[in-house]
Write a structure and sequence with these properties.
The chain is α/β, with parallel strands linked by helices and 212 residues long. Helix content is 39%, strand content 14%. Helix 2 links the parallel strand 3 and strand 4. Helix 1 packs across helix 2 and helix 3 packs across helix 7. The longest helix has 13 residues. It is globular and about 40 Å long. The model has no long low-confidence stretch (mean pLDDT 87).
Amino acid sequence: MKVYFISGLAADKRVFKHIELPPHCEIIHLDWITPIKKESLSAYSKRLGEKINCTEPFCVVGLSMGGMIATEIARHYQPAHTILISSIPCSQHLPFYFKWAVNVRLHKIVPTRFVKSAAIAKRFFTNETKEDKIIIKQIVRDSDPKFIVWAMEAIATWQNNELPVSYIHIHGTKDEVLPHRLTQPTHTISKGGHLMVMTRAKEINQILQEIL
């Protein structure tokens, strides 16, 4: 079975380097496409989903923002499983500060280079391995500033109340971006942070092995 992976905001397929699936599964990474001006998250997701071969059973896995996109893809393309990691399935689970930031146009005022610098500096206080810290810093540096600005607004204005059919939601109790208390995951990883896809991959892999 083909399993399509979607990374998070300001990230790419490198964040999934520790993920391992059963032998019968094939990992395919859905790389970002250029958003259309003012495009909604739902419309963008539908276009991204056009890369999926829907003539055969497939699964979709989304990390953070990628999980929101996976949820929207599931509405249009009916995967066998929709798997969210450090993400949310409904817009009601968004923290209030996402919408507040867009309402005050913070994503337009604060330069993306500052956001990138903050994400890189944060690595001094996180528990990734030295090798993973280097990879994360490079991923942040490589991210597209225009895409970040679009994505922040698209997330904050996202509207979805429907849970995907046959979905799995893996979330850490110490997620600092999308707090665990605001959502209702099917699988919880104790003390897992937002980037537990790298720091707690062994536990995530075990869950994926059981599902797939």
